[in-house]
């Protein structure tokens, strides 16, 4: 498990009862970071999911999304926390595993019909990914797929996202541990 074994678990962060899956220990290791980007690159070169642009979710989705956009020869569009993007934005509020949050995209960041691969480090409730998909669709984009390093299936995000018909790919799971 060269990817999973490099991910650190921090109990009770940011709140009591949360087992925080910390990918910083994976990506600080050059072998780990390369494994992640090579695996995602190979998957999207060969799986038939066709897309034009990568949309990465702040903050850890930027690290993966940026590298993957480079290896796949795509552009990169950020989804950011409120107040960070300088031009006109669209915003959505959503529920997290441990609270609520808001995200924004520039209104001119996509063109009508553009196909998007959403990228983030981790899928828990699916609230963030579904909010990002909502923003992409508000802007006329089409969500072709969603990519994560970590899936936490016990929390239910994967099921919710699959029920809505989106394609998901993740590199590892933490289940009942
Ligand atoms: O599936 P969900 O329940 O929505 O949870 C997943 C989100 O939670 C984490 O981000 P966090 O809110 O910790 O923000 P950060 O990346 O800016 O640290 C993670 O990076 C995802 O974006
Ligand atoms: N358990 C968890 N670990 C890391 N990031 C998260 N985002 C939501 N839940 C998380």
UniProtKB/TrEMBL annotation:
<dbReference type="GO" id="GO:0002055">
    <property type="term" value="F:adenine binding"/>
</dbReference>
<feature type="domain" description="Phosphoribosyltransferase">
    <location>
        <begin position="32"/>
        <end position="153"/>
    </location>
</feature>
<dbReference type="InterPro" id="IPR005764">
    <property type="entry name" value="Ade_phspho_trans"/>
</dbReference>
<dbReference type="GO" id="GO:0003999">
    <property type="term" value="F:adenine phosphoribosyltransferase activity"/>
</dbReference>
<protein>
    <recommendedName>
        <fullName>Adenine phosphoribosyltransferase</fullName>
        <ecNumber>2.4.2.7</ecNumber>
    </recommendedName>
</protein>
<keyword id="KW-0328">Glycosyltransferase</keyword>
<dbReference type="Pfam" id="PF00156">
    <property type="entry name" value="Pribosyltran"/>
</dbReference>
<comment type="pathway">
    <text>Purine metabolism; AMP biosynthesis via salvage pathway; AMP from adenine: step 1/1.</text>
</comment>
<keyword id="KW-0808">Transferase</keyword>
<dbReference type="InterPro" id="IPR029057">
    <property type="entry name" value="PRTase-like"/>
</dbReference>
<dbReference type="GO" id="GO:0006166">
    <property type="term" value="P:purine ribonucleoside salvage"/>
</dbReference>
<dbReference type="GO" id="GO:0044209">
    <property type="term" value="P:AMP salvage"/>
</dbReference>
<dbReference type="InterPro" id="IPR000836">
    <property type="entry name" value="PRTase_dom"/>
</dbReference>
<dbReference type="InterPro" id="IPR050054">
    <property type="entry name" value="UPRTase/APRTase"/>
</dbReference>
<dbReference type="GO" id="GO:0005737">
    <property type="term" value="C:cytoplasm"/>
</dbReference>
<dbReference type="GO" id="GO:0016208">
    <property type="term" value="F:AMP binding"/>
</dbReference>
<keyword id="KW-0963">Cytoplasm</keyword>
<comment type="subunit">
    <text>Homodimer.</text>
</comment>
<keyword id="KW-0660">Purine salvage</keyword>
<comment type="function">
    <text>Catalyzes a salvage reaction resulting in the formation of AMP, that is energically less costly than de novo synthesis.</text>
</comment>
<dbReference type="GO" id="GO:0006168">
    <property type="term" value="P:adenine salvage"/>
</dbReference>
<comment type="similarity">
    <text>Belongs to the purine/pyrimidine phosphoribosyltransferase family.</text>
</comment>
């Amino acid at each position: 498990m060269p990817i999973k074994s490099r991910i650190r678990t921090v109990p009770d962060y940011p709140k009591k009862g949360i087992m925080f899956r910390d990918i910083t220990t994976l990506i600080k290791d050059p072998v780990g970071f390369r494994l992640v980007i090579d695996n995602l690159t190979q998957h999207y070169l060969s799986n038939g999911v066709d897309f034009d642009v990568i949309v990465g979710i702040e903050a850890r989705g930027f690290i993966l999304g940026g590298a993957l956009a480079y290896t796949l020869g795509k552009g990169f569009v950020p989804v950011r926390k409120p107040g960070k993007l300088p031009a006109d934005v669209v915003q959505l509020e959503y529920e997290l595993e441990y609270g609520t949050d808001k995200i924004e995209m520039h209104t001119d960041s996509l063109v009508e019909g553009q196909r998007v691969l959403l990228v983030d480090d981790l899928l828990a409730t699916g609230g963030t990914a579904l909010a990002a998909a909502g923003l992409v669709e508000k802007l006329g984009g089409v969500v072709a797929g969603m990519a994560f390093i970590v899936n936490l299936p016990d929390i239910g995000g994967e099921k919710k996202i699959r029920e809505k018909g989106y394609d998901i790919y993740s590199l590892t799971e933490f289940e009942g541990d």
